[in-house]
Design a protein that fits this description.
Helix content: over 70%
Distance between the termini: 24 Å
CATH topology of the largest domain: Growth Hormone, Chain: A
CATH class of the largest domain: Mainly Alpha
Largest sheet: 2 strands, parallel
Structural class: mainly alpha
Number of domains: 2
CATH architecture of the largest domain: Up-down Bundle
Number of helices: 16
Strand content: under 5%
Radius of gyration: 22 Å
Order of helices and strands: EHHHHHHHHHEHHHHHHH
Strand order of the largest sheet: 1-2
Number of strands: 2
Shape: globular
Length: 458
């Protein structure tokens, strides 16, 4: 390969060194992820304060939590589809405006009906932003770094939640629960001009629209030593998305189903914990600040777990590491019910629960992106995350039903631990029945998946 050889855009990004320009794009995408995490979990931080202010039962918050997640599911699907037609960047900007404005209007709602509506609209914007920043971060990352980039993006989400928890613990006692939503809506609007000015459009979208001049300017800023050949672009970028049925082709179907089960259970668990820990803990005698700190430690543990297990995966294989982590998470999550009235013990236990449940969940997303061949990756990852969102919607609703039925604090988290154990079993089966049985003569597109899933190069 010579410097003057014409390459398509994907090959140029893969072959070139990572530039400061690309790092800047990744940082901006991570910043969007942090804002997304803050606003997604803000309702969990303020729920105990709202129940006290409005004099309502905590179990009534199940539909509020579920409305935001349903909005996220619909927003992700709709904005992802429209992004293919109108571009990733403009749809990402629109999504940011939607969740910002909805968050700013939330403090003025005066009933559960309007709170549900506000959280649904906020969820549409938050879910709509997700495919935008993931697509941009993926496209401006070389293939060798792409799985790690996906994991780092998801680290931005809990990092935003951690920062939101710390800030909320200070804002709520001083200024009331309304201040959390005002901050969550104002920050994205303040940063919006930066996103508009600095975030580039998807290279592949620009190629489809034949905007060669813009592409050449971006490649110049990347400092790539290679020449772009527009005629070398694969035809798949100009074809319709592959059929959903391709996910169930021989050799892929079982892996697809097990990935769906794992993400459904793990996201059900995550949102069960994130949304109900503050209310349940406050109901059992601890302060609102202690409840918010517990969720903060849960997310902090998830960040540490993602970084830790991401390194172990390279050596020992994804399925093995993730399965063991989820198994440990089952015990850690169940032990939350034994924390009693000690704020220090609660924060310690929730940190380890996040380490062994949220951490492997983010690594599962990276495994999902590596499992599918290049031409099927977007469809596979999108559908898997869609199924995961269904689990996220189910988690808060199940929690509300269990609380309404009078389930004890201890049994509530024993149930959550069993969900984590189910995720451990499903990803373990993925490793034994699918990843360990891949044929040696796999196509080149599977090389990255083999390295990630088995910890070795074939």
């Amino acid at each position: 390969m010579t410097d003057n050889q014409g390459l398509n855009l994907e090959a140029i990004v893969d072959a070139s060194p990572v530039s400061r320009y690309q790092i800047g794009v990744l940082v901006l995408c991570a910043l969007v992820a942090m804002l997304d995490g803050f606003d997604t979990q803000s309702i969990a931080f303020v729920a105990p304060a709202i129940t006290q202010a409005w004099g309502i039962e905590p179990a009534l918050f199940g539909p509020v939590f579920g409305a935001g997640l349903l909005g996220g599911l619909l927003g992700g699907v709709a904005f992802g589809h429209m992004g293919d037609r109108f571009g990733r960047k403009p749809l990402l900007i629109v999504a940011i405006v939607i969740f910002s404005m909805a968050s700013l209007l939330t403090p003025w709602v005066g009933s559960m009906k309007w709170l549900i509506a506000a959280r649904f609209i906020t969820g549409v914007g938050l879910g709509g932003a997700l495919p935008g920043f993931i697509a941009l971060a993926s496209e401006y990352s070389p293939a060798r770094l792409r799985p790690g980039t996906v994991a780092v993006m998801f680290c931005g989400f809990p990092l935003g939640a951690v920062m939101g928890g710390i800030v909320s613990a200070k804002l709520i006692p001083a200024y009331g629960w309304q201040a959390v939503f005002l901050l969550g809506g104002a920050l994205p609007l303040v940063l919006l001009p930066v996103f508009v000015a600095k975030l580039p459009e998807s290279l592949q979208f620009l190629a489809v629209r034949e905007r060669s001049a813009v592409i050449l300017r971006i490649l110049a800023r990347m400092g790539s030593p290679y020449t772009w050949d527009a005629t070398a672009e694969p035809m798949r970028h100009k074809q319709a998305t592959l059929s959903f049925i391709k996910l169930f082709a021989p050799g892929t179907a079982l892996g697809t189903l097990l990935l769906w089960v794992t993400l459904f259970l793990s996201l059900l668990l995550s949102y069960f914990l994130i949304n109900w820990i503050p209310i349940v803990v406050n109901r059992n005698g601890l302060s609102v600040q202690s409840a918010v700190h517990a969720v903060t430690m849960l997310n902090l543990g998830g960040i540490v777990g993602c970084l830790l297990f991401g390194r172990l995966i390279v050596r020992f294989g994804a399925a093995r590491v993730i399965s063991i982590a989820f198994a440990c998470g089952a015990a850690a999550v169940a032990s939350i019910g034994l924390a009693g009235g000690s704020s220090l013990l609660l924060c310690t236990v929730t940190f380890f629960a996040g380490l062994f449940s949220l951490g492997p969940q983010m690594c599962t997303v990276a495994l999902c992106s590596a499992f599918y061949q290049t031409f099927l990756r977007a469809t596979g990852v999108g559908c898997a995350l869609g199924v995961g969102r269904m689990g996220a919607i189910t988690g808060p609703l199940v929690g509300g039903l269990l609380l309404a039925a009078g389930v004890s604090f201890l049994n509530l988290f024993l149930f959550a631990g069993a969900i984590c154990a189910g995720a451990a079993i499903s990803v373990g089966l993925l490793g034994v029945l699918v990843l360990n049985r891949r044929p040696i003569n796999e196509p080149p597109e599977h090389k990255a998946a083999v390295v990630i899933s088995n910890g070795m190069t074939r």
